[in-house]
Design brief:
Number of helices: 8
Oligomer: single chain
Helix content: 25-40%
CATH class of the largest domain: Alpha Beta
CATH topology of the largest domain: Rossmann fold
Order of helices and strands: EHEHEHEHEHEHEHEH
């Protein structure tokens, strides 16, 4: 095990890099622009409600653009329903915003595939795909605040480790994003060690990293779900930490909150609406999903500012 460093949240060992600023002016977005916010979906109703709340907050920052939420799987409305709502509202330019933290298969394949299939049955639109959320500096700062809140007020520990736990993907690039994030977080927060782990499809697994942390005999282990909002996966993480606390009581096990809900997430999203909303085709930006080309457009009349579905 590497040499331990004490962690105690303070302004000195958190190097703040970001200020949450008001979004860029959004008057350039007109009623012909539609924004489709695509969440993953969860079996936990509170997680889906939190996503819809975030979408409502984002819609208030989107100027005249039409905003519709949808889910990739599990929950409703699905992508085809969200696109149908935008078509009824007369949108001719579409911005698809994947609300995922890594660029795995969902971002690279599943979302564009479902969008393509749904648009075959709808009036033609130009499409721009925004980047996934990634390690946006604001998200990193928000994660550090969640860590502060979890550890704040506790007695000093001689050695403390942080375990980041992400959803996981078969795409090596998505795994590498989380590994790089773990390295960045260690530089920012002064933890003795920061480990990356995954709930599925990637290595090292969450369980493997927890077992290694227990055997390393850290005084304190903080587990932080690298998830946008609470849901079924956060419940799984919480259950595992309760089990670790019972099995390895000599270590203090702490769980931090996921990134949201937080009103600042909508502020982070708003500049993307301008950046991609002014594009006339998805091929104009470098992060378009692999091999996925923009669709062509035509327009209809705009209806209302918000869909009655949500």
């Amino acid at each position: 095990m590497s040499a331990r460093r004490d962690y105690r949240p303070s302004a000195r060992n958190i190097k703040r890099r970001t200020v949450f600023r008001a979004p860029l002016p959004l008057n350039a977005l007109d009623r012909q622009t539609g924004i489709l916010l695509v969440g993953h979906g969860t079996r936990r109703p509170e997680g889906n409600r939190a996503f819809l709340d975030l979408c409502r907050a984002s819609a208030r920052l989107a100027g005249k653009a039409a905003v519709e939420p949808c889910f990739l799987e599990i929950a409703e409305p699905r992508i085809d329903r969200g696109l149908a709502n935008l078509a009824r509202r007369g949108v001719s330019r579409l911005v698809v915003v994947p609300m995922q933290l890594t660029a795995g298969r969902h971002v690279q394949h599943d979302i564009p595939s479902q969008v393509h299939q749904a648009l075959k049955r709808l009036p033609r639109m130009s499409v721009a795909f925004a980047n996934h959320l990634g390690s946006h500096a604001g998200l990193v700062e928000l994660a550090e605040e969640r860590l502060d809140r979890a550890v704040g007020g506790r007695a000093r520990a001689r050695g403390c480790a942080l375990v980041l736990v992400a959803r996981g993907s078969r795409d090596p690039a998505a795994r590498d994003e989380i590994v790089r994030l773990a390295r960045l977080r260690r530089k920012l927060n002064g933890m003795g060690e920061v480990f990356a782990s995954f709930l599925a499809m990637s290595e090292p697994s969450f369980g493997e990293v927890l077992d290694r942390a227990a055997l390393a005999n850290w005084d304190r282990v903080v587990v932080q779900p690298h998830l946008l909002l609470p849901g079924q996966l956060t419940r799984r993480v919480e259950a595992r930490i309760r089990d670790m606390s019972a099995r390895y009581s000599q270590t203090e096990w702490i769980i931090a909150s996921p990134l949201g809900p937080d009103a600042r997430l909508a502020v982070m999203l708003a500049p993307r609406f301008v950046t991609y909303g002014l594009c006339r085709s998805g091929g104009e930006r470098g992060a378009s999903p692999r091999g996925y080309h923009a669709l062509t457009n035509s327009s209809r009349n705009h209806a209302s500012s918000f869909s009655p579905d949500w």
